[in-house]
Amino acid sequence: MREPDPLTLFTRDGVRIDAGHSPGDRGLCFVVAHGFTCSWRQPVLRRISAALNAHGGVIGLDLRGHGRSGGRSTVGDREVLDVDAAVAAARRRGYGRVAAVGFSMGGAVAVRHAALCGGVDAVVSVSAPARWYYRGTVPMRRVHWVIERRMGRLAVRLARGTRVAPGGWNPEPAAPHEVASRIAPAPLLVVHGDADPFLPLEHARQLYGAAREPRELWIEPGFGHAEVAATHDLIKRIGEWAVTAP
User: Fold this and answer.
1) What one-character DSSP code corresponds to residue 175?
2) What is the pTM assigned to this prediction?
3) In this predicted structure, what is the pLDDT of residue 226?
4) DSSP states of 71-104 as a string?
5) What gap in Å lies between CA 205 and CA 180, rounded to an integer?
6) DSSP class of residue 161?
7) Average pLDDT over the chain, rounded to an integer
8) Which phi and psi angles does 33 have, rounded to 5°?
9) Which of 28, 63, 75, 80 could be bridged to 56 by S-S, CB 3.0 to 4.6 A?
10) What 3-state DSSP class applies to 215?
């Protein structure tokens, strides 16, 4: 995979989004949405994009408040506009189909984007929360401290360069499971590991249960959480699913 072509996108609410395009088969483009505190430029996301690039073009983007993008993270709310800008960029480049692939927070964003904005031909949600405010694991309690506390937001900005919007949601956005039924007729693939330290399998089952056909649920033995745990084989299978999805 050669170095991606740099892209600067602008969302409908005026946020500048940093992205990269790896050209591929014009039949399909993957729009890849990362998890909280990540960036499309990180090696793990580049590895995932390289594996998907074997099946089509890839546009990776930094969601707002992350990496080189502008704005502040709304942790899954207005990020649907970031994905929408990337989907539009794929269409302008002539791709016939677009598949949104999201990891953790990015998975929630991909689901909500497909349900609320449309415009995609397939959706893949990997290690995503089905509902908000889950604090049932130690890692998720830490995530909420980062998001909700001033010191937490300062810490994640200094440590990871992630800028989180203060003040929380107003109003609270619909949770992924509340809108998943609106994704159809686009196919939805829900992927979750049985060794996920952040979110237990109940999230995947709730999201899958709320969706309508066509849908698939993959419970991956020994798989942990999101990008860091994703193997080449898993990403290869996701790419193959997107190519053949109805």
Assistant:
1) P
2) 0.97
3) 98
4) S-B-TTSTHHHHHHHHHHHHHHTT-SEEEEEEET
5) 12
6) -
7) 97
8) -110, 120
9) 28
10) strand
